[in-house]
Write a structure and sequence with these properties.
alpha+beta, four-stranded antiparallel sheet, 7 helices, 11 strands, DNA-binding
DNA sequence: CATCAACCCTGAGAGC
DNA sequence: TGCTCTCAGGGTTGAT
């Protein structure tokens, strides 16, 4: 499940090269193949093809969990959702014949230099947009976790403005962009905050600790090239450094207490019952 | 505004 | 071995 560190890792590889793959910077689109139509959020296949063929790739960046490919006159956005990945591959064999798409390739963009960019997505939840106005897609996102303008004061104020449990609030991309289930659980554990804590009950000091923790776990994830979970996404090794995520029953690395798993907002949630004590006024104490 | 369930999908793992 | 069943999970949508 690619979250900010995994998406950042992929975006950097596309821009600078890496993961044994060349950069896509400066390449020109020659043709496209859409194998699963729903992968293309907008526009439809004919318009998409007409508008993207001939365009040159100027830059690659990231916003939240979106990968932003800057073209000459518009933007190609990707959201990997659960199982998406972007791979740069050789498109033509030595005889100049097109190498057939790999299993679960949903969208393939061919370049004029014989390479291609493949959007591979087992579960088909991922989406791509071709748009002149990326704000139409990205406009609703909350701040970037590493943005300097996101100070402890600002986060504290943001938390106070809502009356929700911390876990689902941090997962909400409109509140903060980039966290997913893994890094949210890890950040809350590091900040010693129970996932059911009401956002209005978070003190300034706790907000400050939370911001530092979020940046710490995300930074650690990026440094380790993300986490490789199940068969999804290759390369990273942050999965070997989880403190609580998918560590149910294992000892908390801080105090040794077995990690517990509960469900909050239809999401599995892992925490240490000692390091992250039940808040005085938990939101929805019953469930 | 907040919560909740359903939905989109496939493959892994459990149970038989 | 092979079948069926359950489940995971990000984000969207519609109902309460």
């Amino acid at each position: 499940m690619p979250e900010l560190p995994e998406v950042e890792t992929i975006a950097r590889a596309l821009r600078d090269g890496g993961r044994d793959e060349p950069s896509i910077m400066g390449k020109t689109v020659k043709d496209v193949h859409v194998y699963w139509k729903r992968t293309l959020a907008e526009p439809g296949v004919p318009t998409f093809t007409k508008r993207i063929v001939g365009q040159k790739i100027k830059d690659v960046s990231r916003r939240g969990k979106f990968i932003v490919v800057h073209l000459q006159s518009e933007y190609l956005l990707f959201h990997l959702r659960m199982s998406g990945d972007l791979k740069v591959q050789v498109n033509l064999d030595p005889e100049g014949k097109r190498i057939k798409a790999q299993k679960h390739d949903q969208l393939v963009i061919e370049f004029s230099d014989g390479m291609r960019l493949a959007f591979n997505d087992t579960r088909k939840f991922g989406r791509a947009w071709l748009t002149r106005d990326p704000q139409m897609v990205l406009g609703g996102l909350g701040p970037e976790p590493f943005d300097a303008s996101l100070t402890p004061e600002v986060l504290h104020q943001m938390l106070s403005a809502h009356s929700r449990q911390l876990k689902p609030l941090l997962l909400d991309q409109k509140f903060l962009a980039g966290l997913g289930n893994i890094y949210t659980d890890e950040a809350l554990h590091l900040a010693k905050l129970h996932p059911m804590t009401g956002s209005k009950d978070v003190t300034f000091k706790q907000a400050k600790d939370l911001l530092r923790s979020i940046r710490k776990v995300l930074g650690e994830g990026i440094k380790r090239n993300g986490a490789s979970i199940d068969w999804v996404y290759r390369g990273g090794d942050f999965q070997n450094h989880f403190s609580v995520y998918q560590c149910t029953g294992e000892p908390c690395p801080v105090c040794g207490t077995p990690i517990q798993r509960i469900v909050i907002g239809q999401r599995s949630t892992h925490y240490c019952p000692v390091c992250q004590p039940e808040p005085a006024r938990p939101v929805n104490p019953g469930k």
